[in-house]
Design a protein that fits this description.
heterodimer, A: alpha/beta, 8-stranded parallel β-sheet, 9 helices, 8 strands, 13% strand, globular, B: alpha/beta, 5-stranded parallel β-sheet, 12% strand
């Protein structure tokens, strides 16, 4: 078993003319790597009719529907996060209920509103009620505001996680650029945040630091936009970890975060 | 045969990096089946006189046949011609220069003289676009990244020079390649360390649009996991001869001229 907790797919109303090829490429590479389940999100229209990190309600619904469609086409391979924009608080709650009812298994929050903002509280409360995890986009040490997103860093996500100790959070792409040491320092004392290893960053020493900071039980494997780097980290972990520990990172930790029974051998 | 043209030895000043010793590099090479590594001395990249690291580099590589030295040349310091001559005498496959770290204008007069000298000496020049993702660099690590415009200017400045560019992404490579004449582009080699694999398939696209013979295997280890460059090749459907070209022959035959 190998669960990718951080995948993306595209659809016909994104800016990507090559969206079919990108989706097919992910599935093809996944077969070669041995990915059992891609747990994916679609961020609205990815910038076509509303910004990637500030998706409109209409774009969110279209993207979530596209992902539900992919789940139906590949029921043995693809599961979905419901992506929502916390600025549309009522819509977000309704969309989460709708997505989960359609078979989605988690909530994706990108960078529409700072993680520490109270507007995220109703979403987290719903995550607790429904027993699903929240995957939150994180900029590893946000030293300033970056254009195109209201990014959060680990300190801000941990503030949210501390307010919702019964909700399971996933800090997105520790290798996604930025100072991952800053994130790891923040995470050590907040047990309900797991670390998603995805991202293009493959820094020497990063995986050892993750293990030292949060322990193997809080690491989950993923790819995001670069599956080669995900596979590389997995290969490195094969040398770094005992087989039972490796199984935790490959899928068992992820299986604990998501509702019971959503993965094939869960 | 797998040759890593982009390996580093020695401590990095901006964060703790494991595996920076010669023995550790050998272990990493064994781990991912790299037969030979072209190694640079990482600490001296940040020194005022980067060539001061060359003696250690020559001594270290002389003790280990799987290492080939990539000595540093600072064309703004008197005597740099001797460093270039020594590199040729000692069989260095390439020399490196990191102008933005040295405080040199990448297309300034010192660099143009170095490029001409490398062309005359038939010694390829290695340039790194970056060492780390800009988003994660230490606040005091402020040397600019090498620009694509600078690479275009340098390859045009001497008709004999051959350049090996490391840590470049797809956009950078395309901008330089298609912004150069075919003759100029034929004197450029790109290491694969910073090029994305699936699902974006940047490397697959470049191999199709630019051609297999312009790419060499590089990792950037130990700053980056060497497994990445192997994984991205494993995710391609390459013919045996194409893979051999990238993994060794483009470096050991094509680049050697």
């Amino acid at each position: 078993m190998l669960i990718d907790v951080h995948a993306h797919f595209y659809h016909d109303r994104t800016l990507r003319a090559d969206w079919r090829e990108r989706n097919a490429s992910r599935l093809r590479a996944g077969e070669r790597i041995g990915i059992t389940t891609h747990v994916a999100s679609i961020l609205g229209s990815f910038g076509r009719t509303s910004p990637t990190y500030f998706p409109s309600p209409a774009d969110l619904e279209y993207g979530n529907n596209a992902l539900i469609g992919l789940e139906h086409t590949h029921p043995d391979r693809i599961r979905g996060y419901v992506t929502v924009n916390p600025n549309y608080a009522t819509h977000a709650r309704v969309e989460i209920q709708r997505g989960l009812a359609a078979g989605m298994i988690g909530i994706k929050l990108a960078a529409s509103r700072r993680a520490s903002d109270p507007l995220l509280d109703p979403i987290c409360e719903l995550a607790r009620e429904r027993g699903v995890p929240v995957l939150h986009h994180v900029w590893q040490h946000r030293r300033r505001d970056w254009p195109g997103q209201e990014a959060s860093d680990a300190v801000e996500l941990c503030a949210l996680a501390a307010r919702h100790p019964d909700v399971r959070f996933i800090l997105a792409h520790i290798g996604g650029g930025g100072d991952w040491q800053h994130s790891l320092a923040a995470l050590a004392r907040i047990p309900n945040v797991a670390v998603d290893l995805s991202g293009s960053g493959v820094d020497g020493g990063m995986l050892e630091s993750c293990l030292a900071a949060v322990g193997v039980e809080r690491l989950v494997w993923g790819t995001d936009l670069t599956m080669d780097t995900g596979w590389a980290k997995l290969r490195y972990l094969e040398r770094l970890l005992a087989p039972k520990e490796l199984e935790l990172v490959r899928w068992k930790n992820a299986a604990r975060l998501f509702p019971h029974g959503v993965f094939p051998s869960d | 045969m797998r040759v890593d043209v982009n390996a580093l030895l020695g401590a990095y000043p901006f964060r703790k990096v494991p595996g920076t010793s010669p023995d550790a590099l050998l272990q990493a090479m064994d781990r991912v089946a790299i037969d030979e590594a072209w190694v640079s001395h990482l600490p001296s990249l940040f020194w005022r006189a980067p060539g001061d690291g060359n003696a250690w580099l020559y001594e270290t590589t002389a003790r280990q046949s799987r290492f080939k030295p990539v000595p540093a040349v600072h064309p703004g310091l008197a005597g740099w011609e001797l460093a270039l001559g020594e590199a040729a005498d000692r069989g260095a496959p390439v020399v490196r220069c990191d102008p933005t770290h040295y405080g040199l204008e990448p297309t300034g007069p010192e660099m143009r003289v170095l490029v001409a000298a490398c062309g005359a000496a038939r010694l390829p020049l290695m340039l790194a676009v970056r060492l780390e993702d800009a988003r994660q660099r230490h606040p005091n690590d402020r040397a600019p990244e090498l620009s694509a415009a600078a690479v275009r200017a340098l390859i045009r400045s001497d008709e004999d020079v051959r350049l090996v560019i490391t840590h470049a992404d797809r956009a950078f490579i395309e901008e330089v390649h298609f912004g150069s004449t075919p003759e100029e582009a034929a004197r450029l080699w790109w290491d694969v360390s910073w090029i994305w694999g699936p699902p974006e398939d940047h490397l697959a696209t470049l191999l199709e649009t630019i051609g297999v013979h312009r790419f060499v295997f590089g990792t950037g280890q130990p700053l980056r996991l060497p497994e990445t460059s192997v994984a991205k090749l494993d995710l391609l459907d390459l013919a045996t001869e194409q893979r051999a070209a990238i993994e060794s022959e483009n470096a050991t035959r094509g680049l050697a001229g």
